[in-house]
Amino acid sequence: MSTLALLPAMLMAASIATAQITTTDVAGRPVQLFDASSSNPAVLIFVRTDCPIANRYAPEIERLYNAYASRVEYYLVYPDAGESADAIQKHLSDYRYTVPALRDPKHALVKMGKVHVTPEAAIFSARGELLYHGRIDNRYLSFGKAMNRPTRHDLENALRTALAGQPVMETSSPAIGCSLADIR
Fold first, then answer.
1. Are 178 and 117 in contact (CB under 8 A)?
2. Which of 4, 82, 161, 176 could disulfide-pair with 140, CB 3.0 to 4.6 Å?
3. Nearest CA among 166, 140, 170, 143 for reference residue 155
């Protein structure tokens, strides 16, 4: 197939890769993601206030934020349209999060990140290309069955690779958590 024949698909891929997404934070202020002028990747961690698995990950999510926030755009994402701003603020306070939080009630970020459960992570390039999606680590073997300590740190490994400018070889890993199918 000629390069000319591939041009429409290449142009469409380029426009998707440089898409700038505007969403809102918990207070309703607009937040722009995927700024092509930035070189920082974006890490989105999808959580729910009522998910015990996501809540158990709060210390690890906060640790990763503190370790990498100076080099990445890092956000918690609340995809449940039924969760009020007050409930989210309480959740942030109860779990001592300092991570900035976004709302995604229409699931635009959920779709972009190929997210199905909470907690689940997605790493995007500064241009909005999905580099990794999946679990934070392998602490959960199945729903209700967890190890005391993980042996693989999938999100952190992918993040280190992306920050080193290398291609992420393991682009996804299955996450165990609370389904997003039951929220509106």
1. yes
2. 176
3. 170
CATH topology of domain 3-179: Glutaredoxin (3.40.30)
Using one digit for the tens of pLDDT, what is the confidence trace for 42-55? 999 999 999 999 99
Domain-wise residue ranges, the chain: 3-179
What is the pTM (predicted TM-score) of this model?
0.86
On whether the CB atoms of residues 43 and 159 are closer than 8 A, the answer is yes
**Helix/strand/coil percentages in the chain, nearest 5:** 30, 25, 45
In the sheet that 21-25 helps form, which strands lie side by side, from edge to edge? 30-33, 21-25, 101-103, 73-78, 42-46, 120-124, 130-134, 172-173
Tell me the pLDDT tens digit for each residue of 103-135.
999 999 999 999 999 999 999 998 889 999 999
